Amino acid sequence: MNLQDRLVIVTGASSGIGLATARLLAKQGAKLALVSRSKGELEQLSDDLPGSLAVPADMTRIYDIESMIRRTMEHFGRIDVLMNCAGQGYDAPVEKTNIDTFHHIFDLDVVGPVVAMELVIPIMRNQGGGTIVNVSSGTALMYLPYNGAYSALKRALANISLTAREELKKDNIVVSVVYPYMTLTNFEKNTIKDAVPEGGEQDGGPPFPADTAEYVAQKILEGIESGEAEIFAHDWMKKRADANP
Q1: With contact defined as beta carbons under 8 Å apart, do 133 and 90 qualify?
Q2: For this structure, is 150 an active site residue?
Q3: Which of 104, 113, 173, 197 shows its CA 20 to 30 Å from the CA of 163?
Q4: Angle of helix 112-127 relative to helix 148-168, nearest 10 degrees?
Q5: Backbone phi, then psi, for 36, in 5-degree steps?
Q6: 125 Rama class: left (phi>0) / alpha (psi -120 to 50) / beta
Q7: CA 145 – CA 167 distance, rounded (Å)
Q8: What is the pLDDT of residues 22-37, one digit of tens each?
Q9: Per-residue pLDDT tens over the stretch 96-147
Q10: Shortest CA distance to 175 belongs to which of 185, 164, 159, 186?
């Protein structure tokens, strides 16, 4: 897909991968609906990216998502790409997983993207097609201690995305999944942690250096342009996926 003058919704646009992707897509000529809970940061970003619209929304609230889609359509009149990037991490042993926290992360990392998909699919179908990109996680391809809840939800997001891809082929709607590796953002700082032993998250250490948000944004752009089903930050991650069907 050529992004010149295409309307792209970017959730989680105020920081990290979402912010880097919004800036990169703007350079490609895309028009942007910028979504996050951070109204002030969104409005400042919108000022920096001509033709964009700040749409504050909490992606755990269905009403907010509905309002966000409605405002986007009222302002731009179309939606060509939905990029679900908003999310939060959760580290805890399975035995000590806080169910209330699990529900919250589930609402943000899985339900919110699915609701947004449900709302944009009829719009894209009426337009003759569109693209949906859901940001999963490399952890969805692994079995890491203290990461069971989060990785399970990110795998769920990947599976429902790839199922939707098959269902929507006839409508010319392309659904793709992106699997970032460790990324140099505030994600880890904002991750909720329950009963994780000191230093437990670092057991064994990461096998490769962390990526920049800009690197992941470039991968997302390549995925939008190519329409590939799965976009991996690194080739070794694809080998993990093949080994764990």
Answers
A1: no
A2: yes
A3: 104
A4: 20
A5: -170, 180
A6: alpha
A7: 34
A8: 999 999 999 999 999 9
A9: 999 999 999 999 999 999 999 999 999 999 999 999 999 999 999 989 999 9
A10: 164
Contact 108, 85 (CB under 8 A): no
Angle 148-100-201 from CA coordinates, rounded to 5°: 35
Instruction: Give the integer Cα–Cα distance in Å for 105 and 110.
Output: 8
CB-CB neighbours of 161 under 10 Å? 24
pLDDT tens profile 73-100: 999 999 999 999 998 999 999 999 999 9
CA neighbor of 211 nearest in space, from 183, 178, 177: 183
* CB 55, CB 33: distance < 8 Å: yes
Tell me which residue of 139, 211, 190 sits closest to 36, measured CA to CA: 190
Instruction: Show the 3-state SS of 134-176.
Output: EECCHHHHCCCCCCHHHHHHHHHHHHHHHHHHHHHHHHCEEEE
The closest of 23, 28, 20 to 4, measured between CA atoms, is 28
Q: Residues in the chain, how many?
A: 245
List Cα–Cα distances, 190 to 11, 16, 106, in angstroms: 17, 11, 16
Q: Which amino acid is at 221?
A: L
Beta strands in 21-169 (DSSP E): 31-36, 53-56, 81-84, 90-91, 130-135
Q: What integer pLDDT is reported at residue 243 of this predicted model? A: 57
What is d(CA 24, CA 45) in angstroms, rounded to the nearest whole number?
A: 13
Annotated catalytic residue: which of 90, 146, 150, 181?
A: 150
- Tally the C-alpha atoms within 13 A of residue 234's C-alpha that lie toward its C-beta: 14
